[in-house]
Amino acid sequence: MSNIIDSHVEEQIRSATEQFRAMLVEQYERNARIAEEAGRSADDRDNKECTVIGLAPGDGIGPVIMEKTKAVLDRLLEDEIASGRIEFREITGFTIEERLAAGETVPENVLSQLDQCDVLLKGPTTTPNAAMGGRNLESANVFLRKRFDLFANVRPVRIPEKNIDWTFFRENTEGEYALGSKGIRLGDKAGDGLSVDFKVTTAEGSRRIAKAAFDFARENGKKRVSIVTKANIMKKTDGDFQSICLEVAKDYPEITVDTWFVDIMAANLVNKDIRDGFEVFVLPNLYGDIITDEAAQIQGGVGTAGSANIGSRFAMFEAIHGSAPRMVEDGIAHLANPASLMTACVLLLRHIGLADKAAALEAAVKAADDAIGAEMTGLPGGRTCSEFAEIVGKSLLDN
Ligand code: IPM
Ligand code: MG
Fold this sequence. Notes:
This protein has 14 helices and twelve strands. With 399 residues, the chain is an alpha/beta fold. It has a domain at 38-149 and 311-399: Isopropylmalate Dehydrogenase, CATH 3.40.718. The strands form two sheets. A ten-stranded mixed β-sheet has the order 2-1-3-12-11-4-5-10-8-9, sandwiched between helices. Strands 6-7 form a two-stranded antiparallel sheet. A hairpin with a 4-residue loop joins β4 and β5 (164-171). α7 crosses α8 and α12 runs antiparallel to α13. The radius of gyration is 22 Å and the shape is globular.
């Protein structure tokens, strides 16, 4: 033992090594399970007589935007609800208070309700931290994505007047998120020694997101898929992700493929001369997280973008923004923009085979956005969630 590393740190290194071994085994087995799953047939979602849609309003501004969104859905799907084609189910026990009280990211009784649903419409959920008086729990989004293996995070961004029509395929279960709560510190607290987090790329995990992106491109007449990584620095994880995407691309010879590093892609998105040339993007988890916030901001703000989390058996649709607790504290939750959650509904409706309803809702949200989107600032004096929902509802009636 060197005299720099005392017996306490030596013990931490020993236990970290053991932990690392267990993580490698767990992730290697997960890779094998993904391969097995890929071999099974797709689910029978389209043949189901009744689709059960779970509704989880979430925290902060969540209940405000969910209430208005649900009212719009009730109107839009009146016939489907009456005929039993669609059933809504309120998910209970999923607020930050209930999660902290249970000491669980997503309490067991919430999971058993979700197991009974086909899809979930989810409002933003606050990520608990030690300062909230509870344990430092994992984010509910991240937990649910892993629990239901929702590997494809699909995030469209459209700005017709700027000729922008982007669809991001963000890998949703791996990268820095796979073991994000399982990092290692040598030393007893921040500032004592060093800390290490882990990033995981599995071959099968990369293959399935690449296939999802290329299939989408093929089915939607897109001509170009851009692979975004930092493979020049993260040589194993991002290097393999890029190689696997390029391998998958060979099965889609009609589609042009290009590779980009994430930093220059962040610049490309604000480069007006070239950005409208991009169509479909495939990215590892963390880059997808960051780049899609940037893209949403270009569209008009994170309050405007919806997000689909798709797995082979279950799917979750959500706003891409957080619960904005400060808006609630400041008494301005009623100024929250419901466009993001409503756009998530557009993706949900398309996913469950109601393409016409999806198109109608998309047009209505666009009408509201054109009318007052720029004034939905979320700041005192801005237009309200109710006003926005009213325009959406009226536009649905008119068309
Ligand atoms: C998102 C969010 C989440 C993420 C947070 C809330 C954990 O930023 O969906 O983009 O990092 O994935
Ligand atoms: Mg994000």
